[in-house]
């Protein structure tokens, strides 16, 4: 499971950072999911190996433009590229209204079907390899977090249990290994009762704009990674006032309180620069977060890619 950041700026792009867009790639194959797509996201995708043919779903956290203005362009690019497979969009209801109006006015006719699921209903959506849940956040508009949990994890058969039950080697063993429930000697048997899982399912939480990180307590249960906005440092947040955003210390303290293994901060105000000599600098955000969090901390950058291994170890992917 990999995370590839297509944009890390809040509100507006900068010369070096685009607005929000995060690609989550499946551990096998080319399948991927897009969380938010600010203006210019389709341009960012061109600088990666991602293909719109392999895109399985788009998730929009909320209706603000820096998280959704790139949606019509992405759909148009997918159409021009010859996509025919249906595409799922999970987003606030307002996005559907806006998108339908945009398609009508600009005569954007898509050669593939869109399956729209309203995130306002807090849906749970299952794909072949990933299960996604929705959680409400606190922002100036309705905002949501999405959890991505792998559905198929490596497991070994519990030989001792199988022997005790008298289940003979053969097709029944194969079905149990594949996660299929069976019936033996007139008794229904659950596959999970005869499997030994080497690792826990990988789980990533990607949150939209949110000024109350503790709303994510349930979402982060058994998660190895949280991606959360840190638009400001605490000092800058006090100057900005009540704008519905979090600051580094606030998010970091929450992550520390739930003993979260890894935290990725993103959605930095455009005033923060990557140069440590600049003021204010994104390093200010890092230092503030490090003072409140003892886990593995990462500050996202455009085109930065991170991998979550089967063991739950999370790290940055070094250039290929």
UniProtKB/TrEMBL annotation:
The gene is rnz. Its EC number is 3.1.26.11. This is Ribonuclease Z. Gene3D superfamilies: Ribonuclease Z/Hydroxyacylglutathione hydrolase-like (3.60.15.10). Keywords: Endonuclease, Hydrolase, Metal-binding, Nuclease, tRNA processing, Zinc. One of its GO terms (molecular function) is 3'-tRNA processing endoribonuclease activity. Belongs to the RNase Z family. The keyword Nuclease applies. Zinc phosphodiesterase, which displays some tRNA 3'-processing endonuclease activity. Probably involved in tRNA maturation, by removing a 3'-trailer from precursor tRNA.
